[in-house]
Amino acid sequence: MKTGIIYCPNHRPFTSVKKRWEQIAAELERQGVEYDLVQSEDSESVERLVDMLINNGYDTIVIAGGDSALNDATNCLMRAEQRQRDRIAIGVIPNGVMNDFAAFWDLDYYDIRKSVQTIVNRRVRKIDVGTISYRNGKDEPCRRYFLNSVNIGLLAAIQSLRQQMRRRLWSRKLSYAATLLMVIFQKMTYKMSYSIDNVEEYHRVMTLCIGNAHGYGQTPNATPYNGLLDVTVVRQIAMLQIINAIYLFLKGKLLTHKYVLPYRTSSIEIKMKTTTPCNVDGHPIEAQSDSVNVSVLSEQINFIVT
Question: What pTM was computed for the model?
Answer without folding.
Answer: 0.88
